[in-house]
Amino acid sequence: MNKKSTQTDLKNLEELYHEAEYWHVNTGEETIHAKRMPGTFRRIKWITMTVWLAFFFGPYLRWNGQQAILFDIPGRQFHIFNITILPQDVWMLALVLLFFALLLAAITSIAGRVFCGYFCFQTVWTDIFIWIEEKLEGPPARRRKLDSAPWDFKKFRIKFIKHSAWLAIGLLTGISFTLWFGDAFQLWKAYLTLQAPLFAWGTVGVFVFFTYLFAGFMREQVCFWLCPYARIQGVMYDRETILPTYDFSRGEPRGKLKKGSRAEGGEQGDCIDCKQCVAVCPTGIDIRHGQQEGCITCALCLDACDSVMDKIHRPHGLIRYASLDEIEGKATVKIHKRPRVLLYFAIMLAAIGGIIYGLANLGALELKVLHERQPLFVLQSDGAIQNKYVLKVLNKTDADMQVILTISDHDTIKLINSGKPFMTKKGRVTAHTVFLRIPGDKLDAERIPVIFRVENVDDTALFAEYQSMFFGPAR
Amino acid sequence: MSDKKNPNDVPDTGHLWDGNLRELTNQPPKWWMNTLYLSGLFVVVYLILYPAIPLLDGATKGILGWTQMKRLNETVVEIEKIRAPYENKLKGMSATAILADDELSNYVVRSAKVLFGDRCAGCHGTGGSGNPGYPVLADDDWLYGGSVETIQQSITAGRNGMMPGFGATLNEQQINDLAQHVVALSKGSEYAPGKELFVSQGCVGCHGMDAKGLKMMGSANLTDAIWRFAPGTIESVKYTIGHGVNSPGAEETRNAEMPAFQHKLSETDIKKLAVYVHKLGGGQ
Question: Predicted ipTM?
Answer without folding.
Answer: 0.78
